[in-house]
Amino acid sequence: MRLKDNAPPTGCITSPRVAIFAICILTIALFSVYSNSFDSSWHLDDKPNITDNPRIHLSVMGWEGIKEALYRPVVSLSFALNYYLGGLDVTGYHLVNMIVHLLAAIFLFLFIYGTLNLPSVSDRYGSGSYLIALL
């Protein structure tokens, strides 16, 4: 791909300030939504999956305990590490959940922004791609 006048490639966020602004807005929005969950109680499927599930109650960090917790690899390992670090304190579980949602939101923003700047659609959406992706 040949660039004219050293212009950045289409779909590229050229300023770190622009990317940092998007990440800050997403972080503030997600924290606003999830902030009331840090001191809440267990709900819905939390009892069978966390509080009453001895498979994720790691008391000693080691391969045997981790292997036991890997029946649902990503979720169970996350629960097991949360239990190991904080027991049944709901704050750690909800903090990890918020971080997962924040990372998903950032990658979704980048995906939508990049998609709207593809050559086949950039003429139609390119000028508004940042705002559309951020929304």
Taking pLDDT < 50 over at least 5 consecutive residues as the criterion, the unreliable ranges are 1-7
Helix count equals 7
> Mind telling me the C-alpha Rg?
21 Å
Number of strands: 0
> What is the arithmetic mean of pLDDT?
81
Q: CA-to-CA gap between the ends?
A: 30 Å
* Bulk shape: elongated
Output the structural class: mainly alpha
Helix share bin: 55-70%
Largest sheet: number of strands, sense, barrel closure: none
Order of helices and strands: HHHHHHH
Share of residues in strands: under 5%
Outline of the structure:
The protein has 135 residues and is an all-alpha fold. It has helices at residues 16-34, 46-51, 63-69, 73-86, 90-116, 122-125, 129-134.
Q: What does the model show?
A:
Helix content is 61%, strand content 0%. The protein has 135 residues and is mostly helical. The relative contact order is 0.14.
Task: List its traits.
disordered N terminus; 7 helices; mainly alpha
Topology:
Layout: H1 16-34, H2 46-51, H3 63-69, H4 73-86, H5 90-116, H6 122-125, H7 129-134
